[in-house]
Design goal:
Blueprint lengths: L1 H18 L10 H4 L11 H14 L1 H4 L23 H6 L2 H10 L22 H14 L5
Helix pairs in contact: 3-7
Length: 145
């Protein structure tokens, strides 16, 4: 009986560890999958500029002023802040995925289990402001800024 308990416990630990490993999964929850940015907002210079101001005021402390993930506040555990200057990574992320991440932060799985300290910005920023931030961070990974 002890062996069975040992092996079941071991299996549960391994399975739990496996489920918390980041896999680059860009799956978006159903409630965010249908969300779309306002027309032409993501490419609007005005939206990008507004997003830059919001990013510098709210996000740069962790993500860095250049959006390279090298901010003044670095977590001692959990995932590091995202590097928005990584073109390949940014091209792989849909606007809906970014909106979900900005809106929910580290409050949702799998990020909560990984120890993410990112705040859920939906409580501080309007929907339009969140899209403006997304327009800005997308611009970091799309051109030569």
């Amino acid at each position: 009986m002890r062996r069975l308990i040992f092996w079941l416990s071991t299996l549960a630990v391994i399975l739990g560890a496996y489920l918390t490993i980041p896999r680059g999964d860009n799956t978006v929850p159903r409630e965010y999958a249908a969300v779309a940015p306002p027309s032409n907002l993501l490419d609007s210079p005005d939206a990008i500029d507004a997003g830059r101001a919001l990013f510098l005021a709210n996000c740069a402390v962790c993500h860095g002023a250049r959006g390279d993930g090298q901010g003044a506040t670095q977590p001692k555990f959990g995932p590091k802040p995202a590097d928005f200057t990584n073109r390949a990574r940014m091209r792989s992320l849909s606007p809906q995925y970014l909106f979900w991440r900005v809106s929910e932060g580290g409050r949702v799985e799998p990020f909560r289990s990984q120890g993410s300290i990112m705040p859920a910005w939906r409580y501080q920023l309007s929907e339009e402001q969140r899209w403006q931030v997304i327009a800005f961070i997308r611009s970091l990974g799309m051109d030569e800024r």
